[in-house]
Each structure stands twice: as structure tokens, then as C-alpha cells.
Amino acid sequence: MTSADELKALVRTIPDFPKPGIEYRDITTLLLDRTGLAAAVDALAATVDGPIDLVAAIEARGFAIGGALAVELGAGLLLIRKDGKLPGATIAEDYALEYGTDRLAMHVDAVAPSARVLVIDDLIATGGTALAAVRLVRRAGGVVVGARFLIDLPALGGAAALRADGVEAISLMAFEGD
């Protein structure tokens, strides 16, 4: 199982969640399939050139893929969480939501200067969380070498926004719509 179509077949679509008109792309069905999960992690790892020091996984579904990818790449795992969820000293970044803002945080001492960091999440939509994660890593002195996602929703422009910010953005599969 290596094709995008085979992986897409493992992603469940839930209509009208979390609100009417949204087609939610649920990766939990892919995560339950050991062959699909292994194929997804292998495919993501194959897109990475050069050494990576840290995989920065965005809460929450990014953790599931990020941990496995970090092991595969021989890298550490950096957790990017919603503000207030990490103990100890943190730095935080706001990002825009459809109606308002939210905030992501990471430990202030998590990234060594010039560490090569790959950002990972399950899905890229508008790019708000991914761009906030990129800003956090850069503020801490890390070098963002790219961003990886299982799913891209290209109509929402998140991957394009990352690229406009100088970040290589690669996804394994794309779904039309939002």
C-alpha cells in the first residue's frame, strides 16, 4: 500500500462535522490500519532530505504521526500544544480561527539553536496552526526545514501560505472542498 488513493480509501469522511457544510476528514480509520499507518509514515519519511534533529508535532492528531515519524527519521519529538497544556516555561504564538484566535505553545528550551526541525500535522487547511508552529520554532532559534501532512485541503490555501513563508510543504493526499 503506497499510493495516495490507497491511503485516501482509509480516511473516513464525516459530513456536517463539526458544523453543517463541513466534510471532516477523519484519520482515525487510517491510524487503526497497521499497514496503512506504516505506509503513511514510510511515505512521509521518504519525502525528507537530509538529517532532522526534531519533528515538531502539532496537537493532537499530529502527535500520532509525529512520534512514529521521529522514530523513523532518528529524530527527537517536539510537542506543539495548545497554550496552558505544557508544564514549565513556554513560548506561545497566536493564530487566527474562523471567528477569533487561539494559541499554540512549546517549551522555551525545547529547540537548540540551529536545530533542523520538521513540522508535522495530520491535515493542512488554512495553515494557521502550521504557521504558528513555524513561528515558534524560528523564535526558539530552530531552522524549519519543511512541513509534512497526511492531508491537504488545497482550496483553503494553507500549503500555499507555508510556501509563501519559505517552508516546503508536502502532503501525501489531497481532498477537494473544506
Q: How many domains?
A: 1
Structural class: alpha/beta
Provide the succession of SSEs.
HEEHHEHEEEEHEHE
Secondary-structure arrangement, i.e. CATH architecture:
3-Layer(aba) Sandwich
Distinct helical segment count: 6
Any idea of the CATH class?
Answer: Alpha Beta
In angstroms, what separates the terminal alpha carbons? Answer: 26 Å
Using the CA coordinates, give the radius of gyration.
Answer: 15 Å
Taken from the alpha-carbon principal axes, the silhouette is globular
Strand order of the largest sheet: 5-6-4-3-7-8-9
Using the coordinates shown, work out and report the CATH topology. Answer: Rossmann fold
Strand content: 25-35%
Quantity of strands, as a count: 9
> Any low-confidence stretches, pLDDT <50, length ≥5?
none
> What's the average pLDDT?
95
**How would a crystallographer describe the biggest sheet?**
7 strands, mixed
Helix content: 25-40%
